[in-house]
Amino acid sequence: MMEYGNAHRLAQDIRQSEEYQTYHGMKDQIMADETTAALIREYKKLQVKLQMGAVSGHQPDETDMQRFQGITSLLFTNPEVSRFMLAEMRLQQALADIFKIINDAAGVDFGFPGE
């Protein structure tokens, strides 16, 4: 039977990581501004839509691309928001790395693009 103690220790290590601390230290302040929060939600929605289209081989919708580029410019022009978005990307990358290590240990092929 699998022991979950190590998983709980990993969760604690993640919460204590610099990536996690930086991201969560900024999140409430950044997301408190309704306009910024709405732009971030729209950015993420468009990002996923465009990525899913690319994975499935579809050409991106020009309107979506232009909107995504415009929102990206707005978000990354603000230094605080830019730092937050980069902190989020670093946390996502760390979590992806951890998932890959666990996935490789389990010997499961989920068929992720680029693997």
Q: Summed up, what is this model?
A:
The chain is built from 5 helices and no strands.
Structural description of this entry:
It contains five helices and no strands. 80% of the residues lie in helices and 0% in strands. The protein has one domain: YheA-like fold (Up-down Bundle), CATH 1.20.1500. The chain has 115 residues and is an all-alpha fold. The protein is flat and about 50 Å long. Helix 2 packs across helix 5 and helix 3 crosses helix 4.
Give the % helix: over 70%
Net shape: flat
Order of helices and strands: HHHHH
Unreliable stretches, pLDDT < 50, 5 or more residues? none
- CATH fold group: YheA-like fold
Number of strands: 0
Strand content: under 5%
| Average pLDDT figure | 92
Please state the structural category. mainly alpha
Quickly list its features.
single chain; 115 residues; mainly alpha; YheA-like fold; flat
Helices and strands in order:
Layout: H1 5-16, H2 18-31, H3 34-55, H4 62-77, H5 79-106
